[in-house]
Amino acid sequence: AFVDGLSNWYVRSSRARFWNTDKQSHDKRDAYWTLYECLVTVTKLIAPFTPFLAETFWQNLAGVFQGRAVESVHLCDYPSSVSNQVDRQLSEQMELLRTLASLGRNSRMSAKLKVRQPLAEVVVLLADTQHQTWLEAHDDLLRKELNVEQITYTDDDQYIDYRVTPNFKRLGPRVGKLMPHVKKAIASAMGSELLAQLNEHQKVVLQIDGQDVEFDNEDLEVSIQAKEGWVAADDHALGCVVVLNTELTPKLLRKGMSRDLIRFANDRRKAIGCEYNDKIELAVDTSDEEVILAIDENRDVIIQECQAISLGIGSLSETEAGEIELGGLTCQLHVRVVS
Fold first, then answer.
1. What is the pLDDT of residue 151?
2. Does the pLDDT of residue 75 top 90, yes or no?
3. CA gyration radius, the chain
4. Mean pLDDT of all residues belonging to the chain
5. Domain range spanning residue 220?
6. Which of 46, 44, 40, 35 shows the shortest CA–CA distance to 65?
7. What global pTM score does this model have?
8. pLDDT attached to residue 214
9. CATH number assigned to the domain comprising residue 210
């Protein structure tokens, strides 16, 4: 889980810090030193179990200090936890944010919406709002992760319906002749309240024909279903629901084209052997008005994400064009290294 979080969250979300052209930037240095410390610690952790791999890592990581570091990872002390340096509140907040991001990605997958396609809005419902202010202050992280224009936090569940499914096979022997009354009581109960009680107390007590009848998570399954034009996912344990607006406007589709162009351009950078800080010139050879408009509307983002100094319509001399597809249209991509 740690390595997954390091590579798929920290490194990916810190790319702008790593790419900062100011080599004296404290933020850039902090990002690198944090990553370095994590890699060194993981190397020490795996040393007893994968000794040769760990030693290779150590030589690559510590070798740059040329004799000022311990010669071998197997001469290092094994890492120990320092519990008083753990910020438990921040850990809870980041766990919640990453859960929301995971739910959003799951919603995208269920709606077959690729991550590069921007969406208008994500709505977040939280059963416990103690961390909502912090989430709102850091919603840029979630917006980038889910590629959405806007995040709305609300307690209004107008975007979803609740579906309550009783386990009649399990309930039958216990409630017996009360079953017709049980069906009626469950059907008339509010799904949101049932779900909240199950999450908080792991049980629900309903008054049925003058008797208190208790139901647990195995007796009732409460699921959510997004209304038309939306897609939803939830986490019962944390009591949160993420609902994505799936409507794609022409402007959002053009933004999706620009994201595809960024991917194609960066793939081309790798193919021609660019270093991560090399600057390039970009050109797209197309006559399609929508593609041209997509480039014009998103020019600054494309240039920044591709580390380009220019982006034009047409071709570039002394370059080999690559065929790409933007919005179902075939175009020619030209990339030229300038530094």
1. 96
2. yes
3. 26
4. 90
5. 160-225
6. 40
7. 0.79
8. 86
9. 3.30.720
Regarding whether 173 and 197 lie in a shared domain, the answer is yes
pLDDT of 40 reads 95
Q: Note whether 38 and 175 are same-domain residues.
A: no
One domain for residues 111 and 153: yes
**pLDDT score, position 324:** 94
* CA dist., res. 115 & res. 148, Å (int): 10
| Same structural domain, 128 and 48 | no
Indicate whether 258 and 325 sit together in one domain: yes
Residue holding tokens 């370059």? 319
136 with 51, same domain?
no
Residue 292 confidence (pLDDT): 95
Same domain, 287 and 213: no
Total of domains in the chain: 4
Strand pairing category for 230-235 and 148-154:
unpaired
Cβ neighbour number for residue 225 with a 10 Å cutoff = 12
Q: What pLDDT is stored for residue 38 in this prediction? A: 95
Q: What average pLDDT does this structure show over 267-283?
A: 90
Asked if residues 99 and 240 have their Cβ atoms less than 8 Å apart, the reply is yes
At 286-337, the pLDDT tens digits run: 999 999 999 999 999 999 999 999 999 999 988 888 999 998 999 999 999 9
Single out the residue in 31, 50, 80 at which a domain terminates: 80
Helix residue ranges, H only, the chain = 2-5, 12-13, 15-18, 26-46, 51-62, 88-110, 132-137, 139-146, 168-175, 179-188, 191-201, 250-271, 289-297, 299-306
Q: Which two tokens stand for residue 74?
A: 């197997």
Question: Pick from 62, 80, 98: which residue ends a domain?
Answer: 80
Do 215 and 208 form a contact (C-beta atoms < 8 A)?
Answer: no
